[in-house]
Design brief:
CATH class: Alpha Beta
Distance between the termini: 31 Å
Order of helices and strands: HHEEEEHHEEEEEEEEEE
CATH superfamily: Creatinase/methionine aminopeptidase superfamily
Structural class: alpha+beta
Radius of gyration: 17 Å
Number of strands: 14
Largest sheet: 5 strands, antiparallel
Number of domains: 1
Low-confidence stretches: none
CATH architecture: Alpha-Beta Complex
Strand content: 25-35%
Length: 254
């Protein structure tokens, strides 16, 4: 558990989170357009910084436990928390980009997986399967449901698609006045189990899926998580508000 407490938001507070989420969506779209062969992962971070600055927002990644960038760039077998640097992208790379922003102390957080140039069919399918699992989890995030329903829906979606590894050791999370709050939101679970979902709760749902092992190890930079077998991985995430009318995705484009 993240230990920051479960926080319920008003409609006005969710509206501010939607503003933060729209900035995150713009960051990710701008990075997607810049992710071409020859660009470095630091170049992607630079364009994301420009979006934050243009909107007068604040990064919730930069300086977080010492993290040195405003996005995470995780390439191929890197699952999450890759640090932007001098690595040049090449055609066929699979890049997971995680981004966040703060507006008036309210946080947004989302991730996409981007193909650089032409992807192998299996990598394109991996990304599609992971995004579909995200949307299955979002669909399950309804008032009266339980946290286990989200993880169950994600797992069922991935398992129906084929033999993939659902990455262990990382989860989604509550989000609001902090980027990481209770509750944690696992990508596996039993239907009908766990905390009941109530209107006003906002969570980040973020499945991570590999073409092989579900297990990871952390590199010497103390951030980057890679698959233990070198298999490629994908990561998709949205910030989602639980409302009386169902789930509302806050990190879609404006």
């Amino acid at each position: 558990m993240f230990g920051r407490g479960v926080e319920y938001k008003t409609a006005d507070q969710i509206a501010v989170m939607r503003r933060a989420g729209a900035i995150v969506a713009e960051m990710l779209q701008t990075v997607r357009e810049a992710a071409e062969p020859g660009a470095t992962t630091r170049d992607l971070d630079a364009v994301a910084r420009q979006v934050i600055a243009r909107h007068g927002a604040t990064s919730n990644f930069l300086g977080y436990h010492g993290f040195p960038a405003v996005i995470c760039t995780s390439v191929n077998d890197e699952v999450v928390h890759g640090i932007p640097g001098d690595r040049e992208l090449v055609a066929g790379d699979l890049v997971s980009v995680d981004a966040g922003a703060i507006v008036q102390n309210w946080h947004g957080d989302a991730a996409v997986t981007i193909g650089v140039g032409q992807l192998e069919a299996a990598d394109a399918e991996l990304s599609r399967v992971t995004e579909a699992a995200l949307w299955a989890g979002i669909e399950a995030a309804r008032p009266g449901a339980r946290l286990g329903d989200i993880g169950h829906a994600i797992t069922a979606s991935v398992r129906a698609a084929g033999d993939y590894g659902i990455v262990e050791g990382f989860t989604g999370h509550g989000i609001g006045t902090a980027m990481h709050m209770d509750p944690d939101v696992p990508n596996t679970g039993r239907a009908g189990q766990g905390m009941k979902l109530k209107p006003g709760l906002v969570i980040a749902i973020e499945p991570m899926v590999s073409r092989g092992s579900p297990y990871t190890q952390i590199l010497e930079d103390d951030w980057t998580a890679v698959t233990v077998d070198g298999s490629r991985a994908a990561h998709w995430e949205h910030t989602v508000a639980i409302t009386a009318d169902g789930p509302v995705v806050l990190t879609l484009p404006a």
